[in-house]
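A common beginner's mistake is to predict each chain separately and then try to dock the pieces by hand. The better habit, illustrated here, is to supply every component at once so that their relative placement is modeled jointly.
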Amino acid sequence: MSSQLTPEILSTLERQAIEVPSWAYGNSGTRFKVFTTPGTPRDPFEKIADAAQVHRHTGLAPAVALHIPWDRVDDFGSLRDFAVEQGVELGTVNSNTFQDDDYKFGALTHEDERIRRKAIDHHLECIDVMHLTGSRDLKIWLAEGSNYPGQSDMRARQDRLHESLEAIYARLSDDQRLVLEYKFFEPAFYHTDVPDWGTSYAQVAALGDRAMVCLDTGHHAPGTNIEFIVMQLLRLGKLGSFDFNSRFYADDDLMVGAADPFQLFRILVEVIRGGGLGHPDVTFMLDQCHNVEAKIPGQIRSVLNVQEMTARALLLDGDALAAARAENDVLTANEVFMDAFYTDVRPALAEWREARGLSADPMGAYAQSGYQQRIEADRIGGTQAGWGA
Ligand code: PSV
Ligand code: MN
Ligand code: MN
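With all components supplied together, the output reads:
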């Protein structure tokens, strides 16, 4: 093999699995416009079929995350069987409390007990779905908060949030988990009820061992040292999952590694340092929308980006780094770090793929496969990802 990737690194890469989101295959957009794309899936089955293409060409994406109610079907058992036929499994179930008029002023935090009950019941329905799909994780992202100082009692909302989460957590079976995602703003602009990792941590710590934090890389203020948060959550044993994507400005949901590959590298260095790579407790997921680019190749590119930065992070010379640190040799430590980042691992990863019966060039193989032409011819009237629905 042409490269620096040792057998040990190659076998570590073997354990990498990246879950893809069903909503990446539907049409999505901004609040200005949702562009439709020929061949867009018309139902959850077609989303799974598209997601399976990503795994087929990369060997990296064996699971698909669902979103309820966007992916609600009459028979989840048959969706599960279909996924297995396609060579993937059903993964994390995402709840949705952001598209119902009742939730205008909150869901799990709402002042009105009736609305809170409705939001809790939605999560119980999601847990029922998880039993049918075989999913382990319930992921909760809450669009709750307020727009103006004085509008809400922030403290009382935290208390209600705890009570609601407790009721949901109590319904999980022993092998299921709750992961609570944080986001610093949007759709609320003054305060958000779960704005940061500390709040998510405080809430999940109060629930128990099977409640963890979900870190979405696009959900921090610009300039935030995300790898520090990764380190801390791993140190505390509370990093349950990643939603990978990249951003230039806000929650852009662009392809992971596209906006800032170096940040992705730094995050993966801390994942490896903290024992999170290939660890069953730490799920790697994408949370992306492909507004203008082709969706399946967009996902293929993304999982390849994660693998590429993982391989580079695995190249970090730990002994040289430790020696430089011990001497407080700042410049050498930084050079060792940058050497790993600047190493081109693409030829080695192409060989890694070929050794596994995959194409060296998954983007090219997908383009050649004829799948895209087939779905464009067959599917008329695809669905939106759900944002405008
Ligand atoms: C909204 O910000 C969001 O992007 C969250 O990151 C969720 O994970 C995702 O939507 C799906 O609900
Ligand atoms: Mn997310
Ligand atoms: Mn988001």
